[in-house]
Amino acid sequence: MRGLLVDFGGVLTTNVFQSFKEFAAGEGLPPDTIKRAFKEDREALALLRRLEKGELDAPEFEPLFAERIGVKGDRVEGLVERLFAGVGPEERMLGAVKAAHDNGIKTGLISNSWGGSGIHYDGTPLEELFDAVVISGDVGMHKPQPEIFRLGAERIGVPPEDCVFVDDLRENCAGAEAVGMKAILHRGPDSTLPELEKLLPIAA
Hints:
Structural class: alpha/beta
CATH class of the largest domain: Alpha Beta
Order of helices and strands: EHHHHHHEHEHHEHEH
Radius of gyration: 17 Å
Number of helices: 11
Shape: globular
Largest sheet: 5 strands, parallel
Strand order of the largest sheet: 3-2-1-4-5
Number of strands: 5
Helix content: 40-55%
Distance between the termini: 18 Å
Mean pLDDT: 94
CATH superfamily of the largest domain: HAD superfamily/HAD-like
């Protein structure tokens, strides 16, 4: 393998869905409200896809999504920021990407954005870690569309079949595998790092 492509939220950060649960608790909602909205509510998922592709920005998304999950009044503004308030850097995964990059592996980020809000890329040394960065809102496509994986591979100059892709969502891993990549479903550094070590020169 000559290329490493990774997701941002939930891979280079702590668990996004735990942050969603904390958000729900703070709003007095069932803990699985956000996960269920994206899994079971077609309109909620369609709103997310429009946000990820840059068709909506966060202030446009918030009242529409708030209606889907039952958030009202003065709790609507800043909803996206609060969704990700519990997310922080995952240092072990950041270190693994840096180690791969330092050892000559081409590295790239493929991330579905949240309209410039929520999870912030600021503070992460993207230029030090990655040879290329693909943000869904910038390119008008989103994971798990096959085109975004091909674009990520193209930008780091490595054929898809020579790339490893890491994501915390099963459907995104399936999208990467559909274009020939080796995908690792991330459930935390303890399981992901040993898998990466088998394929790439990284530090544990």
